[in-house]
Amino acid sequence: MFGTGLLKGLGVTLKHALETFDDDRESVPDRYRGSLELGNNRRVIQQPIDQEGLLTIQYPEEKRLLPERFRYIPMLIWDSEKDEDRCTACGICAKVCPPQCIWIVRDSDENGKPLTRASEFYIDAAVCMSCSFCVEFCPFDAIKMNHDYELAVYDRYPQLVYDMAELTVPLEYYAALWPTQFEEEETRRREEEEKKRRQDEEKAARLAAKQAEAAVKQADAPAAPKRSAAELQQLARERAAQRQAQSADGGGSDDDDAAAKKARMEELKRKAQERARQRKLESGE
After folding, report:
1. 83 and 151 housed in the same domain
2. What is the SS3 assignment for the chain?
3. CATH for 141
4. Taking CA atoms, which of 101, 214, 238, 264 is between 20 and 30 Å from 221?
C-alpha cells in the first residue's frame, strides 16, 4: 500500500517523542534514583540502564555522570612516585596533532645541552578537536584526556591557551578519572619491569657462570715450563739456522711453483673452451 513506509516512520518518531515524557509518569522509576547529592540543590544524575527515554538535565544544578572514556582537553601527568614530569619533550604529540594545537619547548642545561624534559608546553583549547591522537601516540603515557569541560571564557587569548602549569595534574587525579585504564597501564608496566628484571638476572647468571668456568680452566691448566736465558738463546739460534736452510733450499722451488701454476692455468683455459663449445652445440648455434 502506498504510504506505508511513511506511516511507519511517523510512528517511530511519535514513539521516541512520547518516551521523552516517561519521567512524568508514576510507573517509571524516579529520575534521581542513584544520583549523587552535591549540596546546595546540586546533584550528579546517572540515568538507570533499564529506563527508556531521554532526561532533561537542569544544568548547572544537575550534571550528567560522565563515563570513564569521556575525553575533552588533554592533560599532562606528574608522576608522584618519581616526583617528575613524565613528558620528555619528544614532540611526537605535536607531530601527530591534526589541528597542530600543541607547542613544546625542550629544556636545556647551563651549557645549552638539550634535556629530556619540557620547559614550556602549550595547548590551544579553542583549536583542540579532542581526538586523543596525542594520547595514543605518546610512548611515555605522559599525556591523557581530561574530563573537565567547563572551560567557558570571554576571550580566546590568553584564557584558552593553557600552559604547562595549567595542564599538569598529579598521577592520582588521572587514576581517579580513568581507573580501568590506569590499572591496565600499571599492570603492563609491572609486567615489563618484571620481564626486564628477569632478563638482567639471567644475563648476570650467565656472566657469572662464564667467569667461573674460565677460572676453573685456568686453575686446571698445567703451568708452562720456565726456561732459562741460555735455553731461550739456544732455541733462537736453532730457529734462525732452520730459516736460513729453508731459504737456501728454496732457490729452485720458485721456478717449479711458477711452472706448476702455469700448467694449471692452461688446464683451466682448456676446460673453459670445452664448456663454451658444448654450450654452443646445445644451443644449436
Report:
1. yes
2. CCCHHHHHHHHHHHHHHHHCCHHHCCCCCCCCCCCEEEECCEEEECCCCCCCCCCCCCCCCEEECCCCCCCCCEEEEEECCCCEECCCCCCHHHHHCCCCCEEEEEEECCCCCEEEEEEEEEEECCCCCCCCHHHHHCCCCCEEECCCCCCCCCCCCCCCEECHHHHEEEHHHHHHHCHHHHHHHHHHHHHHHHHHHHHHHHHHHHHHHHHHHHHHHHHHCCCCCCCCHHHHHHHHHHHHHHHHHHHHHCCCHHHHHHHHHHHHHHHHHHHHHHHHHHHHHHHCC
3. 3.30.70.3270
4. 238
Q: What is the pLDDT of residues 233-259, one digit of tens each?
A: 777 788 888 877 776 665 555 666 777
Residues 6+ apart with CB under 8 A from 131: 98
Residue 117: domain span: 74-168
pTM (two decimals): 0.60
C-alpha cell of residue 221: 691448566
C-alpha distances in Å from residue 61, one per residue of 37, 39, 48, 54, 64: 10, 10, 19, 18, 10
Distance CA 88, CA 13 (A): 53
Cross-strand bridge partners of residue 39: 42
Confidence tier at 285 by pLDDT (50, 70, 90): low
Task: Name residue 12's amino acid.
Answer: V
| 79 and 128 belong to one structural domain | yes
- 6 touches 13 (CB < 8 A): no
128 within some domain? yes
